[in-house]
Design goal:
heterodimer; A: alpha/beta; five-stranded parallel sheet; B: seven-stranded mixed sheet; 10 helices; 17 strands; binds flavin-adenine dinucleotide
Chain lengths: 498, 281
Amino acid sequence: MSGIDKNSGKKRVKKTEIPRTAIPEQEPRVRATNFEEVSLGYTREQALVEASRCLQCKKPKCVAGCPVNIDIPEFIKALEEDDPAAAIAILKRKTSFPAVCGRVCPQEDQCEKVCLLGKKHEPVAIGRLERYAADWEASEGEAAIPEIAPAKGKKVGVVGSGPAGLTCAGDLAKMGYDVTIYEALHKPGGVLVYGIPEFRLPKSIVQRECEYVESLGVELKLDYVIGRTMTVDEMLDDGHDAVFIANGAGLPVFLNIPGENFNGVYSANEFLTRANLMKAYRFPDYDTPIKVGARVAVIGGGNVAMDAARTALRLGASVHLIYRRSMDELPARREEVHHAQEEGIDFHLLTNPLRIIGDQEGWVEEIEVIQMELGESDSSGRRRPVPVEGSELRIPVDTVIMAIGTRANPLLTKSTKNLELNKWGLIVADEHTLATSKEGVFAGGDIVTGAATVILAMGAGKIAARSIDRYLQGQPLLTAEEEDEIRASQEKAAAGAK
Amino acid sequence: MYKILEKVDYSDDVYMQVIEAPAVARVAQAGQFIVLRINEEGERIPLTIADFDRDQGTVTIVVQAIGKSTRQLQELGAGDNLANFIGPLGIPSDIENYGTVVMAGGGVGVAPVYPIARELKRAGNKVISIVAARTKNLLLWEDRMADVSDEVIVTTDDGSYGRKCLVTEPLKELCDAGGVDLVYAIGPGIMMKFCCKTTEPFGVKTLVSLNSIMVDGTGMCGACRVSVGGETRFVCVDGPEFDGHQVDFDELMARQRQYLEQEKISYDFYLECRGDAQCLA
Ligand SMILES: Cc1cc2nc3c(=O)[nH]c(=O)nc-3n(C[C@H](O)[C@H](O)[C@H](O)COP(=O)(O)OP(=O)(O)OC[C@H]3O[C@@H](n4cnc5c(N)ncnc54)[C@H](O)[C@@H]3O)c2cc1C
Ligand SMILES: Cc1cc2nc3c(=O)[nH]c(=O)nc-3n(C[C@H](O)[C@H](O)[C@H](O)COP(=O)(O)OP(=O)(O)OC[C@H]3O[C@@H](n4cnc5c(N)ncnc54)[C@H](O)[C@@H]3O)c2cc1C
Ligand code: SF4
Ligand code: SF4
Ligand code: FES
């Protein structure tokens, strides 16, 4: 840290002189053998120091960097004044689940990426402070009971209990609507409960958030597969005045290379569902088995791949992570990549799988890969990896986990009449209102955007709740001011393009 | 919670349960299945809907105890509750008037055949049923099948009842005689495989209902994938019924063996600790 600012020397300690506060973590060697949370969270003292680093910018860039525009300097100010209760109230104006976002948001690409302090120094640890405030509320705060508007006598059905569905349901309940969530699985939470592992997001936190939504009067119907147990059309016929579809994008993608149906090849969805939702890591106390040999190959480079790799590691395997581009393109959160490296995951970058080789009985034995090098840039501006001739190589493995993405599950959409889909099978919804082609039906989260992030799904839930409220009150979905705003920003963008 | 209203043991290992699940019964159709979980620690196990009653809001399952979960389920009776009961899943059978259909059910496979046979009969088909089992006391629902069939042929592997032969023998004879428009074969993988081998030379379309290992049953995990006509399909959402002549049964059966080792650990652990709270804790 060198850049001491001579002009801002009003305070006793210059803010820019304080280094970003490290967060206590379990030792890599210890945590590689357990499923407890890796990151332990700030202590009160640490949170006070970190909060004091914020410059309280007059034009805070960080707020625009957050997809739901949390009033970041304001909540950090409250923390600096040692008033976590005020901080949590400020956070909750914009996010329903600060304990979740503080843990899993890709902060380095959002709020912290544009933090002004980050220009010359390290950005304020916004996510960690958000987490601190939320954890404080859980352990010491008084459960604030929000005001619930008088009953409006209208019923809304929400499909899916992931972050989008939970947020929308909670907001509508507060507005006085009678809300029921229909969830296909036996536990609520969506990806937060079946995908993201315990060591990154403890399930007790997800459970608490779900219970909170229920405490607002939302009815949660589990074991309810929309498209099978009941269709969206039946929901509308059967007393629901509006429906919000937030069923995520949970269809696993395979590479379509030879050998993918050998025993020991998993989709990341299956592997993580067995481990997280079904608690296979506690087999045989829990009935669901999981099979992890001594050597595991994980294909992919996103958060899902990191989660699968680190779960396999904790189940006792040595893990090869195979990704076809380079470290710079790795889409996973930086922190997770760093944690994975610390824990001893073996990264094979610029490496692409060609086929899976099995034995007589149909079990995986090896995976054949080829080295790649970066060639010309493609349309997205990323240099396209191309195979290096003659560089094929075989890695002996017992298990292969495919973590190359997910697509829309057609189960619900196929059973719904007049619902417009795009060519990837995602639901087409208006960007600003989330209205679909079907009267009274709104959609948001991963089923509209494709696999994205928790905070974007949550933001969609908020927009949907607002639109549904206006729809049920017979108002236009966008107010005149909002329409003006959108028009102005579009004109500005068009002018910029010229 | 889903209440078990009735339970009947057909033999040491095979039993029937009637479960209160109005949301499932409301729309259940022949050929579909459910996924259930016994308790908080339980796995999700798929079972075919053997019967349903929309008015009573009940679903009937017929189960063969082969491992931990199915054995533990057998120990529950009327008045007990299941943690979860999800469905109806899978695509219903395509009920049409095909002409003459042969319904071959092996072991507990007879139970899932029953509602399909009933619907096909209602649709005007001539229904010939082959009810097969290893031995007499494993034979299931001969009476119910008789109610919905024009003709019932019973076979046992050991000859303790009906004809002493495998299910494929009468199936071949019926195909030889001609006039069979469609065959349904439901039972263990090996039985379905050989039924398909039997009908293939005659070019008689043969539908099978596959029992791959599953987790969610809604297309989310891919555990249930199977090769059909060289393409990977998900049994839970694309099936469970497929054209048997296109199915790679060897791959299906290999994939069913994925957890043999763990299943044994789980079963032994269960038998050892059954009812012993201290041991389980
Ligand atoms: C392993 C993994 C790690 C991730 N890590 C991160 C991370 O670190 N940070 C981050 O921001 N994002 C991460 N993501 C992405 C993030 O979790 C998702 O973008 C987000 O959860 C999407 O929310 P959603 O509400 O749209 O859908 P989901 O969370 O997918 O929830 C959809 C819900 O709908 C239910 N459902 C589906 N079909 C039906 C039906 N027919 N009837 C009834 N219910 C149905 C599902 O069971 C599920 O509960 C990760 C995703 C995965 C898979
Ligand atoms: C769509 C579908 C419908 C089914 N319908 C019925 C039914 O109506 N009645 C019935 O008795 N069973 C049915 N099954 C099979 C049933 O799901 C399994 O027997 C059950 O999951 C075994 O659980 P377990 O813990 O008792 O035994 P496990 O210990 O899990 O398994 C014991 C043995 O069964 C094999 N096995 C495990 N899972 C399956 C499976 N899904 N299918 C076939 N073999 C398996 C294992 O390889 C092992 O050899 C159906 C399966 C599917 C996929
Ligand atoms: S929600 Fe995410 S992006 Fe927004 S402030 Fe919190 S950590 Fe940053
Ligand atoms: S940009 Fe950074 S320093 Fe400025 S208010 Fe936001 S968090 Fe604080
Ligand atoms: S059981 Fe999960 S996709 Fe079929």
